[in-house]
Amino acid sequence: MRKAPVAPEVEPAIIARGTPGFSGADLANLVNEAALFAARSNTRVVAMSHFEQAKDKIMMGAERKSMVMKESEKRNTAYHEAGHAIVGRMVPEHDPVYKVSIIPRGRALGVTMFLPTEDKYSHSKRGLLSQICSLYGGRLAEELTLGAEGVTTGASNDIQRATTIARNMVTKWGLSDKMGPQMYDEEDNEPFLGRSMSRPANGQSEETARMIDEEVKGILNDCYERAKQILVDNRDKLELMADALMEYETIDAKQIDQIMEGKRPGPPEGWDDRDKPQGGQPEANDDLQEAPTAASTSAEPKDGSLPTN
Fold first, then answer.
1. Do 215 and 176 form a contact (C-beta atoms < 8 A)?
2. What is the CA 172 to chain-centroid distance, rounded?
């Protein structure tokens, strides 16, 4: 920051607290991106808002504001991301919600950003279960608002990540009471380097593999029901957050705090009525859908939160 013309209100301590895990090169990139945002806005100094924009771009991906979404799909994305945020706020030992956005970034249609307050090098069982609950929050929000038949494929990445965490808890981390503190996953992915093809994968019997599958399914089902109850109990907050996302497209921790208190959130800092989103395509065009391509055979995930491992 010594080489950049920084505004007086910029506080390096706040920037450092909001970028845990960043290396020196990452921080240099942050300053460069902030300087670019300042140049695009025709300002002579780099303000705190430019650092926020740069941090969002680095951590959540570049915005794709040119992508046109139907109004119904945009609202469904708002419910999906609100579900992640609310469950994440209500479960213990979960990283705080930093920002929620329904502006498409990268391959994601929306982003819920959880930002740890400090560097983490290990995770407790309670914290891992909370992560699984939060990952299911998006799908459950869709189920509550659209019905079981209206749930979309947008939670595919969430389900994959939740399943991976649960399986690692059972097979690698010894966090299953039933299976005990034993290593079941040998990560032997080379079947032709000395292992007999007749030997069961990872040296497990069929009975052990079945027990592992049952234990993983039990963890996932328990977290699913727990997250569902949280959203049912906080349905009013789900509606408030979805409405706020439809109005502002992006909400931060301050607005999320207001929503969790049952209040209608105010506009973001620096908000102008000209920033109000114009909405997606009218419902009359709902039958016009983007033709699938060979490179996009699966739905784009809505979840964009930081990896926790």
1. yes
2. 24
Q: Is 113 helix (H, G, I), strand (E, B) or coil?
A: strand
The single residue of 33, 52, 63, 81 carrying the catalytic annotation is 81
Q: Which residues pair with 70 in a beta bridge?
A: 281
Question: Known catalytic residue: 81?
Answer: yes
pLDDT tens-digit series, residues 119-157? 778 999 999 999 999 999 999 999 999 999 989 988 999
- pLDDT digit string (tens) for 165-200? 999 999 999 999 999 998 887 655 555 555 445 445
Q: Does domain 71-282 have CATH number 3.40.50.720?
A: no
Residue with tokens 């079945």: 210
- Give the CATH fold of the 12-60 domain: Helicase, Ruva Protein; domain 3 (1.10.8)
Domain boundaries, the chain: 12-60, 71-282
The pTM assigned to this predicted structure is 0.77
Contact predicate 82/144, CB 8 Å: no
Residue 96: closest CA among 16, 17, 15: 17
